[in-house]
Amino acid sequence: xxxxxxxxxxxxxxxxxxxxxxxxxxxxxxxxxxxxxxxxxxxxxxxxxxxxxxxxxxxxxxxxxxxxxxxxxxxxxxxxxxxxxxxxxxxxxxxxxxxxxxxxxxxxxxxxxxxxxxxxxxxxxxxxxxxxxxxxxxxxxxxxxxxxxxxxxx
Length: 154
Known about the structure:
The chain is mainly alpha-helical. It has five helices and four strands; from the N terminus they run E-H-H-E-H-H-E-E-H.
């Protein structure tokens, strides 16, 4: 078995658009390092948990996130995962092109934007609102006329 040394650099540039959790990214990095040419990885969740010093439940959540984003396929035997063909490693550019053009290669959709601009964070509560973080166009805030007098309570 040869170690896959060729990856599609363009897809890795847009991988941050997937907004993976740090744990999901760690799991993906380990899977990427352990894959066979073409993206098949033979690994148990327990091995990943031990390697990353996290719980098996955390690994399971990370793998679920990777599957939800389309980075991992969901039709594999127990103990194996398949990295999306566009993110998989290959023996060479020719091997990658042949694999991607092969009608037998199943290409499932990636569920994150693959454009040049990273979308806003989904956790930002202001996303989709007319919140303006700088409503006065960069002007200094007005100074209060007089400072309020302070007194001790009680």
